[in-house]
Amino acid sequence: MGRCYSSSYRWSRRRRVPHDSGVPLVTMHIWRVPPVRVGAALWRVARDRGRVRALPGCAFAKVLGTGRGFGPGGADATRWAVLSAWHSPAAAADFEAGTVASAWRRIATAECRLDLAPLSGRGTWAGRRPFEPDPGAAPDRGIVVALTRARLRPARALRFWRAIGPVADAVARADGLHATFGVGEAPIGWQGTVSVWRDAAALRAFAYRNPAHTSAIAATPAERWYAEELFARFALLDVAGDRSVIGWAAA
User: Fold this and answer.
1) Cβ(94)–Cβ(57) under 8 Å?
2) Could you tell me which of 82, 176, 189, 217 has the fewest CB atoms within 10 Å of its CB?
């Protein structure tokens, strides 16, 4: 896997991304800001939502808050993320060196970047399928990253948060989990999780064998919690920066 930088932050040249396959390169930048800079971070969120999407080569982008868990009670105002899908590594590198990322870096005390290749995707985000893999996508081996995202039905949100507690407890103890954190476009009703797993087998073992998780899956059709949902799985191509920003236990 790629290099990890603690004091410097630069674009890795060792990434293996097929330039001619059409597979989008997905990047996730996560910044830790001090409490005195939370106001500046909120300003950046409002300012940058449209700016990232308008960049050349950007196929999809979301500026996200993060949390320590899945739900409004775990929101972390000192950690923010930009999730982007790019038509090429060159477009992603331009973002890395551009004004948006540089502005976040100026207010941050630490940062981490995940470089991802889509392996599979199901569902939609804002009516789109932003992480569809190409037939030539990276092989399903090595470290994998799972992204879940849901827009909750307001009338079902409270029942959902009550039901999801055992799942959150179970994933924190799951074998093969390197890191997990919540993401969202808003503190309430627009929820998601990012989890980093040792390999696809560890992810599948939790998803299909953990009783709390399988019970939640079984309840979903009847409860109709989601107005929109998405699940995507990625190969982790590279990680740069301070892994403790995302709580990576093996940092």
Assistant:
1) yes
2) 217
The SS3 call for residue 128 is strand
Give the Cα separation of 14 and 236 in Å (integer): 13
Conformation bin of residue 114: beta by default, left when phi > 0, alpha when psi is -120 to 50: beta
Between CA 146 and CA 209, with CA 220 as vertex, the angle to 5 degrees is 55
Do 238 and 115 form a contact (C-beta atoms < 8 A)?
yes
CB 196 within 8 A of CB 145: yes
Rounded Cα–Cα distance for residues 139 and 84 (Å): 21
Give how far Cα 22 sits from Cα of 39, 124, 132, 140, Å.
38, 20, 10, 18
CB 44 within 8 A of CB 104: yes
The predicted-structure confidence for 167-205, as pLDDT tens digits, reads as follows 677 677 788 999 999 898 876 556 788 999 999 999 988
First and final C-alpha spacing in the chain: 13
Q: What is the pLDDT of residues 57-115, one digit of tens each?
A: 999 999 999 987 665 567 899 999 999 999 999 999 999 999 999 999 999 999 999 99
Cα–Cα dist 35/14, whole Å = 35
**Position 126, amino acid:** A
Task: Look at the block and give the residue holding tokens 């969202």.
Answer: 184
> What tokens appear for 190 in the block?
């627009």
Residue located via tokens 């993060």: 66
Please provide residue 123's backbone torsions phi and psi, each rounded to the nearest 5 degrees.
95, -170
> Residue 42: left (phi > 0), alpha (psi -120 to 50), or beta?
alpha
Phi-psi label, residue 22: left if phi above 0, alpha if psi -120 to 50, beta otherwise: left
What is the model's pTM? 0.83
